[in-house]
Structures are given as structure tokens and as C-alpha cells.
Amino acid sequence: MRLRTLLTTSALALGFAASAVQAAPDRAELMKQHRGGTLKLNAHGSAGTIDPQINYEAEFWQLLYTTNDGLVTFKKVEGKDSNDVVPDLAEAIPSPQDGGKTYVFKLRPGVKFSTGKDVMPSDVVASLQRVFKVSSPTAGSFFNGIVGADDCLKTPATCTLKDGVIGDDKAGTVTVHLTEPDADFFYKMSAVHASILPADTPAKDLGTTPAAATGPYMIESYNPDRGMKIVRNPYFKQFSADAQPDGYVDGIEYNFGLDDQAGVTAVANGQADWTFDDVPTDRLNELGTKYPKQVHVHTLLAYYYVPMNVNLAPFNNVKARQAVAYAVDRKALVGLFGGPNLASPLCQQLPAGMAGHEDYCPFTQKPGAKWTAPDMAKAKQLIEESGTKGAKITLIGDDKAIPKSIATYMQSLLRELGYDVDLRVVSHNIQFTYIQNTNNKVQISVSDWYQDYPAPSDFLGVLFSCASFHEGSDSSINISGFCDKKIDDDMKKAAATAVTDRAAADKMWAQVDREVTDAAPAAALFQPKRVDFVASRVGNFTYSDQIHFLFSQAWVQ
Amino acid sequence: MIRVVLARLGQMAFVMAGISILVFLIFFATPGTDPAARIAGRNAAPEVLAAVRHDFGFDQPLAVQYVLLMKRLFVTGDLTSFVNRGQKVVPSILQAVPVTMSLVVGAALVWVVASVAVGTLACVWRGTVVDKALMILGLIGISMPVFWVGEVANLITQSRYHDTWLFSWVPGLGYVPLTQDPVGWFKALVIPWVALAILFVGLYGRVLRASLVEAYGEDFIRTARAKGLGEGRILFRHALRTSMVTFVSMFGLDFGLLVGGGALLTEVVFGLQGVGYLTYNALQNLDLPVIMATVMYASFFVVASNAAVDLIYAALDPRVRLARA
């Protein structure tokens, strides 16, 4: 999303109206033809609580985006536009006031919860308080900029945000005050955690009890061991085709049980319509040849990388880290992930397609824009210069098939560079928090990062800023422990610029990307793609960069 | 008799308490198992992490945490999962029991009938080609791990030959409740039954053959022959009955183990959401409350089946009965 377009509210509203008019007759006709039926989904396991303000799993966000709404949301369309923020329960994207520290949202009149009650400003106030009361995962990272958030983080039970979020039921407005301008504010407000729930929703984790919905569907029942049943929300009337289009199917059944292999087989047999888990690489050939029309491949705003601990030997030496970045054969790693159709080599920290991404690759045979081949000679020379040759290293891998094969590759590579390497493979579920904690003294590991929202700060700021480094904590997402004063200042400047001039800020982020990449706190490996395999009866498969497969847009008859 | 039962119950409680402490300690002693950060979500702020730690009681001493966990599991029954928050553990196990029971009871029927047939036939034709063939087949059955058999069965019936007349009747993987659709229930389970039973057919068939052959060398068989009994009567009333002693004790233990969640691999491969599947998922996610509950459930069945085997022993073998009396 470009903020310039955001600031010109009237233009945006106009553009929105025009697209709605254009799309309306088309959609109505299609809706007549295809409405009905049940979409059958599968996943190996469930993904925890279905409390929209707490769940933080892609598996359920995809679903919760069709059941719940925030004030704003990502546009539910195919392609690049899916990264744009559009008004959802709010009538329009508000213009910034007070230098970007105040936003006044006006709610759409007549939108109802699935309980039959109107969505009111007081519900918005209560929902934003609830984010803190239930210790939402992003309470401290997305919503900490709201005035009063500090107190709410300290004592969640008494959270009021009285000076930060002010609702006026009569005027139908909600005013949000920020402590300082935040360019990513609308992205953060588009997250599922910012869903608006009725004010009387209990201030504790709802667990397996569905929250009231505002979207075309609502969860009827949820059993984490079996499945989930989703039905139409009887009170839903389409209020914005961009923000929350009506759904084609009458219901969705989500089964939990079949693993990735069995899931693909079930889809091939028409027993399921789609499976959440990644398609196993050994099935890709079969799918590509037998069912080419049912396969959809999309680039993900994500990357696999090797974080190196800049505070522990040998990777406290920048040359040792750069040597690893030079030596990595990204083509071989792409092969491990399933080949060039499923991933592309990446040298820098910002993946392609992300705002601020400018092709940059210093760690290759012919440094320039793109990666060509590993430069072992240069890598070995750097290791010699660093004086770290022969150092003892423990590499922490993860037991899932692909990360494990990457870790095995990295072990042999580090050995070739002259290190004495042990590989320790840790359960997938533990590894991510294990490698973050400085107490575990992890030198090097294999990890990945998937975007929360399409802003460069979500990669560079989250993964490499001083603020993301917490010693001795399992939640210290700056795994490398990288904290460079100059780069940190540059990030702050870019973030501040983004509030008024997104394009200029993107240029600055591109510079930060180059600086971080040069300092090599992590060696980027590749950018993955997502393969979706749907049953032959599924029509109108629509893929959003942010939400992925949009369930409400598919039809089965 | 009452004393025996009470002693048994006492032993059971002791064993289960020991296991629960062990599981609890393993969970907390393993580095990286602190669940707070996983519960709080990625990139959670320190304040959020602290709030979650407090809410779940991870800031309390280990002993207190253990007692609270046991209280919520056995007394109040409101223990909830760490991963699927809000999911009550006890009801979710109770709801998984029918799935496991359907699988294990069906498989047990298959393997008891088939292995008695295999063992008896091999003994009757001992030394012949039939005997050798059956024993080799049994050995092959024992050597094939159930997850492999299951995956191959799935490959054939769900993938490669699913569209042929032979396997087009096979429903998609997963469980169909008996009360909802008995035919569907049977169709969904018949392949898992056979897959799970193969190992046991091989094992039990071989064991039964060995004890039958041994029984034929015993004095009481010679006596029966001397009394002029027919071969059929000797085989079924005398030889087979005493040979069943080993068979039954093995069966009791295996059955207990399987009902307790030992059919984990079969359940996972065939997508049957039983107790084993629950255990598997809980182990994958390090979900302590569910691991604890399923381990307690499994140990209960193992201990209980041991006791049951002892009682059946006496009924089957007059010598055991006499020795006790």
C-alpha cells in the first residue's frame, strides 16, 4: 500500500465505488450460477485457539479473515492489489490528523454481528482493550503505539486505553491516538488480532468457543482433534466487495487428521477440496503432469535464512559471517526445496516483491544484482583472514524434512570451510524458540520468516533491530543478536519518513537492506513459493498475497 | 480376594504416580521445552510473555505446578491443552476412545481368528510344505512395520488403484462413527484392521504353533490318546486349550497396550483420530497436559490388562488354579 493514495481519502473512496459498480453485475451473475455446496478442507492438525485476537497461525488466519473484520483490512482480490489496505468496518480510510498521531474512523452503519447486534464504536473500544487483556501475541509489537498501551501491557486486567481509543456511539466514530506517527498503522490494524468483537466478549481466551462473526461465514463448532464446521452468518449483508465479499459456498468443513501425503491423495480423489499443508516435494511431479489445471503456484513474501550469532565466536567476526554468505550454493538449496519452480535464490534480507526490495547480491561470483554461483575461493580466503578456521561450531537444525536437509547441507558446507561442525536437530516445535534464547548459546541455525504485513520494517525492523533483541528470553526474534547503532538509526529514519512519503522511505529501506546484508548477521538462502492443489470441482481459486487461498471466493458447483 | 484386588489397585496407583512424576520432570528438564514463548506467539513482547507465564502458572515452583496439574486432571477434570487453548483434555480423550476401540477390537478379532487358524494348521501339517510356508509368511508379517504396511495400503487403495473396480469402494481416510453409518464404519476400518493385525497374526501364529507342538509331547495328550479320543477332540479340547495360556497372556498385554494408545502409528497413517493420534500430536507440539493425560490413560490400561491376564490364566489352566488353591 502506498500511503500517498491513502492520504487522499476522497480519491480512494471514488476508486472503490467505481470498482464496485464494475464488479457488481458480474458477481451477481456468478453468485446465481455457483452459490451453494460445501467446501471441504483438510489439514494435518488444528492450529490452536480460534480466538481471533489470540490465534497467530496462518492456518486459521486464512479462515478468520472470512469470519471477522477489523476497521480496515487487506483487499480480498488476486494479485498485487491484495497487499492494499481497504476500509472494512470503517467507511473510509481516515486521513491522518495531528501529524499522523490521530485517526478518526467512521463506522459503516448497519453492519451486524452474527448475534444480531449492531457493530458500535463501543465494540471497537472494547476490542482494542481486549487485545491487551487477553495478552494477544502482537499486543506489544503491533498495538504498543496506542496512547495508554504501556499501562495496558503492564497491568492488562485494568486496561482502558482511555486516552488512546475513544468511541462515540452517537456520532459512530472511533478516534485512535498514537504516541508517535506509525507508517505501518493500517497494516497492523488489518491483522486478525484487530478484529472487532462484541463489547461483551469475555476478556479471556475463547479457546474452542467461536467469537461472534461479522463476515459472510461464522464458525459453528470447533473440535481441535476432529474438525471445524463453518456456516453462513445469517446477519451478513455484503457491505464491501473489496473488504469482505460474500461467499459462494454455503458451508465449509475443515477436517484435521490427514497428513501432507494423505491430504494430497484425498484432493486428487475428490474426497477433499484443498489441503493446508505444503505439498510434499515427491508429489510435485505427479501433480504437475496429471493435474496441471488444479495446481496454483505463488511466490511467498518469505525467506529461509541462516542466522549467525554476532555475539559468539566464530561469528562475532564479520568476515566469518560473510564467508558463509559467499559459500552457500543457493541453487543447491533451491533444489532441496523442490527446484526453481518452487523457490528462487536470495542474497539479501528483503524478499522480492516486498516494498523496498531492490535486487542486490554482494555474495556471489560476480557481485551485482542477482546471485549466480557460490564463490568458495573468496569464502576460504575470508575464513583465513578472520583467523577462525578450525573453530568448533554447533549448528541447530529442525526436524521437518526441508529444514533438516538444509541443515545437513550447511553442516557439510561449514566443514568444507574448515570448521569443526556438530549438527543438532531439534524438534520443529521447539527449535524456533530455542534458537532465540541467548542462554542456549546458539552459534548458527536454520530458520525462516514469513511476513505479517507487506512492509520492509516487518523483515528488517523485526529481525535485525536492537529493539527485537531480548537477552535470555525465548521471545527474541533478532536471533543473530544484531544491534548496530548506525543501521538502527537508519531504520528509525526510514520508518519516520514512511509516514509521509512511502516512496522515499522504500528507497531508504533498500539502503538499510544493503547495509544489513553487507554486515551479514544472517545469510539469506532462498525465497519459497506456495503450491496450492485443489480438487477438480473447485472453481474461481483466488489467491491473495496476504491471506492466500480466499475460501469465500471459491465455488464447488 | 478383596485383599488381592486392593493390593492390585495400590500397585496401580503407585506405578501411575511414578510415571506421572517422570513425564512431568522430563518435560521440564529438557532444554527448550518452556512452553511460555510458544503459547505467547512469535515475536511476543517481554510484557506479553510475562503475562502468559503468569496466567499459565509457569512462574510457580515445579512441585506446585505438578500438584495443580494432577488436581485438574483427576479431581476437577478441567485440565486444558497448552496448544489448543480452551480444549478440555479429559473429554477429548474420552471422545477419542471409541475410535481406538473400533480399531483395536476389530484388529484383535482379525488377528485372533487368523493366528489360531495359522497356528493350528501349521501344527496339524507340521514338517510339511504348508507348515513351512505359513511360518515364513508369519515371519514376513512380523518383519513388516505397521506404518509401512499402512502407507503401502494407502498408496494402492487411495492413490494408484483407487479408480479401479477393486478399490473404488474404499472411502477417504478417516473415521466414520459406528452409530452414524455402520457400513461406512466397516469400510473405513477394514484396511486399518488388517494392517494392524498382520504383525500379530505372524507373531501369534508362530507362538501358538510352537506351544501346540510342545503340548503334543506332553503326558496328558498320550493319556487322551490312550483313552481312545479322536484326533479332533484331542487337538481342540486338550492341546489347543493348554496352548492358549501363552497366547492369552500375550493377547492381554498387547490388547491393553493398543487400547492405551499403542496403535499410534496405525491411527496416524490412516488418519483415525483416536487416542494414539492424540498422543502423537501432543508429543509433536509438546503439549504437556495432553501428554500427561494420554500417558496416564495408557498406563492404566497396561496395568489393568496385566491384572486381567492373571485372572484368565487361572480359568484356562487347571494347574494354575490348583497351585493357587
TrEMBL record, chain A:
Residues 85-468 form the Solute-binding protein family domain. Its main location: periplasm. GO terms for cellular component: ATP-binding cassette (ABC) transporter complex; outer membrane-bounded periplasmic space. It is found in: Periplasm. The keyword Signal applies. GO terms for molecular function: peptide transmembrane transporter activity. One of its GO terms (biological process) is peptide transport. It holds the Pfam family SBP_bac_5. Residues 1-23 form the signal peptide. Keywords: Signal, Transport. This is ABC transporter substrate-binding protein. It comes from Lichenibacterium minor.
Automatic annotation (TrEMBL), chain B:
It comes from the Bacteria. InterPro entries: BPD_transp_1_N, MetI-like, MetI-like_sf. The keyword Transferase does not apply. The chain crosses the membrane at residues 12-30, 101-124, 136-156, 185-204, 245-270, 290-316. GO terms for biological process: transmembrane transport. SUPFAM superfamilies: MetI-like. Residues 97-313 form the ABC transmembrane type-1 domain. Keywords: Cell membrane, Membrane, Transmembrane, Transmembrane helix, Transport. GO terms for cellular component: plasma membrane. It is a multi-pass membrane protein. Pfam families: BPD_transp_1, BPD_transp_1_N. It is found in: Cell membrane. Belongs to the binding-protein-dependent transport system permease family. PANTHER family: DIPEPTIDE TRANSPORT SYSTEM PERMEASE PROTEIN DPPB-RELATED (PTHR43163). This is ABC transporter permease. It comes from Lichenibacterium minor.
